[in-house]
């Protein structure tokens, strides 16, 4: 093992001499110099590779920490997962919202290039691709910001909670109702 360390030290010193890095070479001339410098080299690699993270999976919903993450539109803390919504832009950044109405208003204001819209199923509180969800919008439904919009995974479940004289909306229809939303 010591032979391998000495060889590595010899190789590194040779490479440094070729690069004319005279200020670093003395570090390796101390007894067991490579052993003293090895943690620094290892730590440097860790720092470099930790900083090189990917943009994330665009087709995966972002993580929302209830009680910790603020809504990107109204800045209130997201406290109830069943009303939470989010979207991921093509650059990989996620936007989080405490109410589906906040998502709609924010998207209308900023017109970002969105890869995926996400909403939580009201009953299971699991993420759904908003394009596959069924929405119920009613003034009689209480949501965190009062927009009265909730999402469901199935049309049957949405019909079960649908107030009289209301109808189920798809996500494209919901995007068109943004003009009606206000605080």
How can the largest sheet be summarized? 4 strands, antiparallel
State Rg: 27 Å
Strand count: 7
Count of alpha and pi helical runs:
5
Strand order of the largest sheet: 2-1-3-4
Q: What order do the SSEs take from the amino end to the carboxyl end, as H and E? A: HHEEHEEEEHEH
Distance between the termini: 70 Å
- What is the approximate shape? elongated
The helix content, as a percent range, equals 25-40%
Number of domains: 2
Tell me which oligomeric state these chains represent. single chain
Into which percentage range does the β-strand content fall? 15-25%
Structural class: alpha+beta
Q: Pick out the low-confidence regions.
A: 50-55
Give average pLDDT, whole number.
81
What would you note in describing this structure?
There is one protein chain. This protein has helices at 2-18, 33-51, 100-110, 155-161, 171-176; strands spanning 85-89, 94-97, 114-120, 127-129, 134-137, 149-152, 168-169. Residues 50-55 have low confidence and may be disordered. It has two domains: 2-51, no CATH class; 81-180, no CATH class. With 183 residues, it is of the alpha+beta class. Helix content is 33%, strand content 16%. The protein contains five helices and seven strands; from the N terminus they run H-H-E-E-H-E-E-E-E-H-E-H. The chain is elongated and about 80 Å long. The termini are far apart. The protein has a four-stranded antiparallel sheet. Strands 6-5-7 form a three-stranded antiparallel sheet.
Summarize the model shown.
The protein is of the alpha+beta class and 183 residues long. It contains five helices and seven strands, in the order ααββαββββαβα.
């Amino acid at each position: 093992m010591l032979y391998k360390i000495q060889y590595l030290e010899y190789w590194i010193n040779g490479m440094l001499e070729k690069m004319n890095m005279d200020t670093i070479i003395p570090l390796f001339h101390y007894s067991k110099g490579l052993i003293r410098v090895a943690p620094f080299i290892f730590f440097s690699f860790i720092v470099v590779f930790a900083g090189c993270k990917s943009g994330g999976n665009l087709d995966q919903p972002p993580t929302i920490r209830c009680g910790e993450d603020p809504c990107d539109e109204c800045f209130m803390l997201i406290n109830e997962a069943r009303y939470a919504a989010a979207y991921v832009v093509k650059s990989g950044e996620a936007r989080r919202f405490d109410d589906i109405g906040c998502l709609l208003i924010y998207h209308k204001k900023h017109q970002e290039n969105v890869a995926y819209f996400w909403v939580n199923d009201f009953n299971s509180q699991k993420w759904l691709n908003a394009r596959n969800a069924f929405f119920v919008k009613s003034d009689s439904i209480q949501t965190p910001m009062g927009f009265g919009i909730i999402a469901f995974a199935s049309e049957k479940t949405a019909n079960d909670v649908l107030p009289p004289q209301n109808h189920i909306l798809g996500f494209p229809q919901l995007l068109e109702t943004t003009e009606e939303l206000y605080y």
